[in-house]
Amino acid sequence: MAIALSIGQSTMGQVQTGRIVGTVTDPQRSAVADAAVTVVETRTNQSVTVKANERGDYVVTPLNPGIYRVTVASQGFQRAVVNVVEVQVGQSARVDVELKIGEMSSTIEVVSTAPLLDSESGTLGHVVTNTQIVDLPLNGRSFYELARLMPGAALLPGGGNLLRIRANYISGTAISGVRGSQTTFLMDGVDVTDHHQGGSLIQTSVDALQEFKVQQSAYSSEFSHAGGVLNATTKSGTNELHGGLFEFLRNDKLDARGFFSPEREVLKRNQFGGTLGGPILIPRVLDGRNKAFFFAGYEGMRERQGLVFNNIVPTAAMKSGDFSKIANRIYDPLTRQPFPDNVIPAARISQQAAYFSRFIPDPNTASGTFAWAPARQLDTDQVTLRFDESLTGKHKLFARYSYHNQRQNEPNAFPALGYAPLRTLGQNVVASLASSLTTNFLNEFRFNYLPNSINLEAYLQGKDFYQDAGIKGFEETARPGVGGSFPDFNWSGYASMAGSAFDQRPKTQSLKAYEWTDNVTWIKGRSIVKFGTKIRRWQPLFTDSKQYQGLWTFNGFATQNSASPARTGDAIADYVLGLPRQVQRAFPADVFGGQGNYYHFYLQDDLKVNGRLTLNLGLRYEYSPWLAGYRGQLGTFDPRSSKPIIIGSESGQIDLGAQFAGPSAYALFKDFIQTSRQAGLPITITQPDKEQLAPRFGLAWRPFGEKTVVRGGYGIFFENENTDGRVNNNMVPFRLDETAFNDQNPPVRTMADFFLGKALTTSAAPSLGPTYTKMHIGRDHHWNFGVQRELAKNTVVEIDYVGNRGLFLNSTNALNNPPAGPGGIQARRPYPSFGSIAFFSQDASTTYHSLQLKAEKRLTQGLWYVVAYTFSKSMLHQNAPAVGGNTAWEKAPSGFDIPQNLAASFGYE
Q1: What is the pTM of this model?
Q2: Domain locations in the chain?
Q3: Does the domain made of 6-109 have the CATH classification 1.10.10.60?
Q4: What values do phi and psi take at 236, rounded to 5?
Q5: Residues 133 and 146: beta-carbon distance below 8 Å
Q6: Which pLDDT score, from 0 to 100, does residue 159 have?
Q7: How far apart are CA 268 and CA 251, in angstroms?
């Protein structure tokens, strides 16, 4: 005997888990109250039993993604069994069962169909199954890249990191018109997002992943953040011991030569690892079958990627003073007469230049360049450990530990400088306790600890090159405990030689997040009510070397004919004489950054109005004060005050010891500085935004039967604070740099003592990076309306209009630009005592409108496919400087605007 059954899927406020909901009726479609519904996970044999209410409705939650068996029993009816019910990440599976009259001792198996229609929520989301994750080719095995296969996702190259600091750094992942830096990454229900620059701080092996979901508009008030959500869940152990090993090889032997390359570049990449999962079995202590499980996964990568450098360098003769082979005449800066035969006498060669010349390679090509092809070294190790245990029939414990270690050695363009190490270490500790307090009252508590560190060393770090070369002027800029490193050289017309990689190395980054979340689910009548809170502690800290080792610039000015400079002079000739045009030095930046606590509260009601209409009603309140600067290193600029620089301080005293530059910079600018306490401002400088109230609404309506669903929704979402701009060590007195110029004729500043024995000061009016005292947290208004239609078994098409409006988005606002007119630039500035003043602001806004289409076929007879098309327009309005100060027309397509995007994927077994 077969019983008709419909299974619908929806996103109903679940994060990493799902739920099974349904209604139990008799043959007359009347509710069967108090029917016993037992749900068993087929892999672990763990079961949950609930009772249907007076309307015959039941809810079983929370459930890990997987395959379940549902058994329904009631006195006077035959027992019904549904053997295959799939629950996906963040989804709900609706199982409505019609019982037949008979003895409970007789059991009938239900024949089910599982349409793809999302029949109970207005949320837009797309699940990427384990089959897709494992089977689709992934360069580098970063599963987040699969988000590009879904409508509304525009993946652009990650901005800001030329090096692979994080293999899954994809800040360009703009989902439905929201900037990629606002995309949220969830792993097993906890936030693993890098809220400093964007991307995920934890990378998990593809083989350790169960599935993940791309959520465009998560209208449940349980979700925070304005961007899309990439919601992933890891695998758990089962009653059977399962494991596997893998090895993926790619190397240059299998590659074709590039069209313009004389030979194949070196590439050797090995990705290897394995997984193991099953019950926890400790002889005579614990038999974990049916209640306690483990899963372990490891993945390693060893990569050697060939690079090609081909740079213009001086010849050995030029480094010895012989410029007879170049076209330009070089002049003696002391006499302003040409050097005889274009050769600098040996006695005039700078000792300091001769010292550093040994690091400059000689040309090795017919064209006079230096070419070499070193290999970048990249090694990674990833570990995932997961434990699940049913403590009692009412309590379930989950814990996970993730580890991601990346080591990279980046070669310099000049071989003598060797390799610069880069180290990244990310960890994640998660624990969760789910408790069924009563049959209709559930509680889940989660803890999340997410530390991450990045350490970038400079080239030849730890050696004092200036002492060996006989150079003075950098003694006070040395970073304690680090020692020296190789300086940076710029030569006009030649390749630069950079010990810091022009990245201000050595530098470090330390990010730490602590998160406590508690969610309560209350099942009452037609409603599934969920409410809870999240407390998050966030601390991003950094160090930066600025130009503490010096930036030396040579442009040929010293060896030019000042009366007729054309075709005269050479930057290397200036260098050989030890006469830079300018040199920059700075105090290194000690620890800076920010810290703060966030408090979020929400209430969600998924109300089933009738058998065809479901409403999702939610309200969220977020109190996210702006971060306070670490040790008060945050400030603003108030031009109305006689002391316009305001620095954060609760005590009324500025912590000058927070930075190496503090005492010197304060001595120079103390007449311009006051504390936030004196100015009546909080230590965060910016007043907290207390207007973060976020209503959410969604609906799902089946007006024409079971094969068509009309869905829509609207919600307000708040963005994360962009710490990359606001707490970046941009205020006096916490930074001090100096650029000195060789502006006398003949030049008097030489490499030996370019700063003439003077202490580090400032050479120009200081530039500032203040923050406003009043700003709104960025917010996005999301809306969508669409229709899903089931065309055939396991095939569905969907069409949606999706839009959003972003307000109060982060940007910069230039306050001290000089207006057009006569006179010097500095004199024309509104505040001539200062250089550029770039306020961190919340003045940008965006608009996004799109038509999104998707056709999907579930795995049937070995075939599955997903085809997604997006037609969209994304516009950005940002207050960029304009002539006359009018910024009203500063509007243009967003940097991530992709008007048309088509993605298709399929698999056949």
Answers
A1: 0.88
A2: 6-109, 124-234
A3: no
A4: -120, 165
A5: yes
A6: 41
A7: 4
CB 101 within 8 A of CB 76: yes
DSSP secondary structure letters along 672-710 = GEEEHHHHT--TTSSBP----EEEEEEEEE-TTSTTEEE
- The edge-to-edge listing of strands for the beta sheet with 92-98 is 6-10, 92-98, 18-25, 57-63
CATH architecture of 124-234: Beta Complex (2.170)
Q: What are the beta bridge partners of residue 343?
A: 322
Contact 149, 128 (CB under 8 A): yes
Greatest alpha-carbon pair distance for the chain in Å reads: 115
Q: Which residues of 589-601 are buried (b: 16+ CB within 10 A; e: fewer)?
A: bbbbbbbbebebe
Which three-class secondary structure string do you get for 143-184? HHHHHHHCCCEEECCCCCCCCCCCCCCCCCEEECCECHHHCE
Amino acid, res. 897: D
d(CA 595, CA 684): 10
List helix spans (H) across 541-689: 571-577, 662-669, 676-679
Report whether pLDDT(89) > 90: no
Q: Is the dihedral of CA 882, 885, 886, 891 positive or negative?
A: positive
Q: Where are the beta strands (DSSP E) in 545-612?
A: 551-554, 582-586, 589-608
* The predicted structure's pLDDT at residue 777: 92
The predicted-structure confidence for 292-312, as pLDDT tens digits, reads as follows: 999 999 999 999 998 889 999
C-alpha distance from residue 576 to each of 380, 523, 559, 767 (Å): 43, 81, 11, 33
The per-residue pLDDT for range 522-573, each reduced to its tens digit, is: 988 888 899 999 999 999 999 988 888 899 999 999 999 988 899 999 999 9
